[in-house]
Design goal:
By secondary structure, this protein is mainly α. α2 (15-22) crosses α3. It contains five helices and no strands. Helices cover 51% and strands 0% of the residues. The radius of gyration is 15 Å and the shape is globular. It has one domain: lambda repressor-like DNA-binding domains (434 Repressor (Amino-terminal Domain)).
């Protein structure tokens, strides 16, 4: 099982739901999960936002699974 599939299942999403979220074809996303096609960076960035994990974890390059910290608000007029 790939990390892409494991994350999708952990979030109780179907391939159809996730492919709709990414605006891609169902069968194409299925190929990403099976490792038959490389997933484009734009989809990886969307998955990063959805799941909150770093790209290395999503791509199964590391087992370090801590979620990313929430984005910090930018300070206005910082002097």
């Amino acid at each position: 099982m790939t990390r892409l599939r494991a994350l999708r299942e952990d979030y109780d999403l179907t391939i159809r739901e996730l492919s709709n979220y990414l605006h891609c074809d169902y069968s194409l996303y299925s190929k990403y999960e099976r490792g038959e096609r490389e997933i484009p960076i734009r989809y990886l960035l969307d998955l990063r936002k959805l799941y909150g994990y770093n790209l290395e974890y999503i791509l199964d390059l590391t087992d370090y699974s801590n979620k990313l910290p929430p984005k910090r608000k930018k300070l206005k007029n910082f002097s």
